Amino acid sequence: MAERAHILIVEDERDTADMLAAYFESQGFQVKQAAWGQDAIQATAQTAPDLILLDIRLPDIDGYEVCRQLRQQRRTQDTPIIFLTEKRERMDKLQGLELGAVDYITKPFDIQELRLRVRNALRRANFETLTDPVTALPSEPLVRDRLSALLKKHDWALLSVSVKGVEEFGDAYGFVARDDALRAVALILTSVSQENGGEEAFVGQTSRAEFVILTDLNHARDVRDRAAARLKQSVGYFYPLKDRGELGARPEIQVWVSAVGEHNGPFADPDALMAFARTAQRPV
Predict the structure, then answer these.
(1) Domain check: are 153 and 201 in the same one?
(2) Is the pLDDT of residue 1 over 60?
(3) Average pLDDT over residues 64-86
(4) Contact assessment for residue 157 and residue 150, using Cβ atoms and an 8 Å cutoff
(5) Which pTM was predicted?
(6) Of 14, 114, 166, 233, which is most buried, counting CB atoms within 10 Å of its CB?
(7) Residue 135 included in any domain
(8) Are residue 109 and residue 150 in the same domain, yes or no?
(9) CA 199, CA 138: separation in Å to the nearest integer?
(10) One domain for residues 86 and 183
């Protein structure tokens, strides 16, 4: 999260929008307003907010549709969204939560309660940047810290894994199937690490489709061989039953793996190490 968190207020009632903007600006936030759903979507394309306060009743498209479209965009897929609405029915709340809203507050609301909900949502989002939202593995900042420490040691090894074609797979089968595939990869690598990587093994994720296992030279070969074998066996099961075995008629996922050790260096920093590991990858 930035030093001054940026809140986007999507509310067509001018008095409510101005009151919220004035209040959160007085609390040290940067605030931007949008009165229409399409304006909100456009605004996020220019500047990704840290949090969105989203009314459900809007003049053009409703807040549910705004939330749905924001969740389909990479830059806002994990942005905390709090619904503001007069609706009180249980099904209305469930619909918002199913779309990925982190909270739901009905009008009229207590501004102090809303402030605390905003604060808590931002704290959770800030913590979650350290873990991947799909797999819950340690994400790039934590992986970099581990790599920096690793480069100061001896007899280390790194397994680098890339899942190629996963975005095309998601376009064809939907983001739920894509995320299920990535979670499966994460579970396989975690299992291999626990069984074959030794006590100090670490599994992390440097981007949506890139994973690492950090271990030592004594365990490196077993980790590489077992991970490659399990991943190769599992890729076909990522597809719906009707498309299994249909090579050439489906978007193809490939898993590429490399094993890199201290002897491949020296490496100046984690970026140099990861760049070398990527170039060394081969399909399983």
Answers:
(1) yes
(2) no
(3) 87
(4) no
(5) 0.60
(6) 166
(7) no
(8) no
(9) 17
(10) no
Q: What is the span of the domain harbouring residue 112?
A: 6-128
pLDDT digits (tens, 9 = 90+) for 116-168: 989 988 887 776 667 887 898 998 888 999 999 999 999 999 999 999 999 99
Q: Are 279 and 147 in the same domain?
A: yes
- Of 264, 253, 255, 262, nearest to 282 (Cα)? 255
**Looking at the 3D structure of the chain, how many domains does it have?**
2
What's the average model confidence in pLDDT over 259-263? 93
- What mean pLDDT do residues 108-119 have? 89
Q: pLDDT confidence of 261, banded at 50, 70, 90?
A: very high
Which of 264, 253, 254, 260 has the alpha carbon at shortest distance from 278? 260
What is the DSSP code (8-state) at residue 279? H
Mean pLDDT rounded to a whole number for the chain: 89
Q: Which of 104, 128, 152 is the last residue of a domain?
A: 128
Look at residues 102, 128, 154 and tell me which one is the last residue of a structural domain: 128
Reported as half-sphere exposure (CB side, CA atoms, 13 A), residue 215 has a value of: 26
Does one domain contain both 278 and 225?
Answer: yes
Task: Report the DSSP pairing between strands 51-55 and 6-10.
Answer: parallel
The CATH number covering residue 222 comes to 3.30.70.270
* Token pair recorded at residue 60: 């053009």
User: Distances from the Cα of 65 to the Cαs of 12, 77, 202, 247, in angstroms?
Assistant: 15, 14, 40, 36
Residue 110's identity, in one-letter code, is: D
Helix (H) or strand (E) segment spanning residue 188: helix 175-196
Instruction: Provide CB contacts within 8 A for 216, sequence distance 6+.
Output: 155, 156, 157, 198, 200
